[in-house]
Design brief:
Number of helices: 6
Shape: elongated
Number of strands: 10
Strand order of the largest sheet: 1-2-3-8
CATH architecture of the largest domain: 3-Layer(aba) Sandwich
Distance between the termini: 35 Å
Order of helices and strands: EHEHEEHEEEHEEHEH
Number of domains: 2
CATH topology of the largest domain: Rossmann fold
Amino acid sequence: MVKAFADHDLDLCEWGDEYSLYGIDRVIHLGAISDTRCNDWIALRKQNVGYTITLMERCQKYGIPIQLASSASVYGPNNTTFKETDPIAPANLYAESKALIEQYFHEMRPVSPVQIFRYFNVYGPHEDHKGDQASPFHKFREQAKTGTIKIFEGSENFKRDFIHVDEVIKVHRKLLSFLGFGIWNVGTGKTMSFLDVARLAADEFSAKIETIPMPILGGYQMYTCADMTKLNRTLK
């Protein structure tokens, strides 16, 4: 259930009236608490919701197009089609924070372009700062350097839509010149299992793969695959 807005949500970011975006042509806002296990709703509301809403409003005030990062996690653990028109079902507080921004976008009736991108499983270099939230590509390669990769039992059944960060950047750049509004999936439309990712790392470093028990993970998405129809149509 997506949390309802309260009037004070708009004041969570304490920017003074003197703060101006004058002279800025575009805004790309990707910053957020990205830990999907975060249970601190006060922090999530302030950082992921309040700040983003304030920035959206400022961009509207100055007529500046803005691009925002959402997440495929808003689809929830039971979705199988992943179309932007599907009902959302956020299963954790992080996903709810992203869903709230999408809800606000629908209600605000923007004049200047607002583009929201639902990222699927992004991976790339320089993920050390992510810790346990790093992508399987990064974690398995790091494990492979030790000689052994540990994966959960049944990992051949956990399939995700993995997209390299370079491809995400290309989407942002292409849509900078598109003065339209909307929400788009940003994925590949293809899936790869966690076992397949582990095998790539194992082959690269001549490592072995071991299976470990799967913990109980509420709201865990076992499968994601972006429907890319809308983005492909937009990019022609």
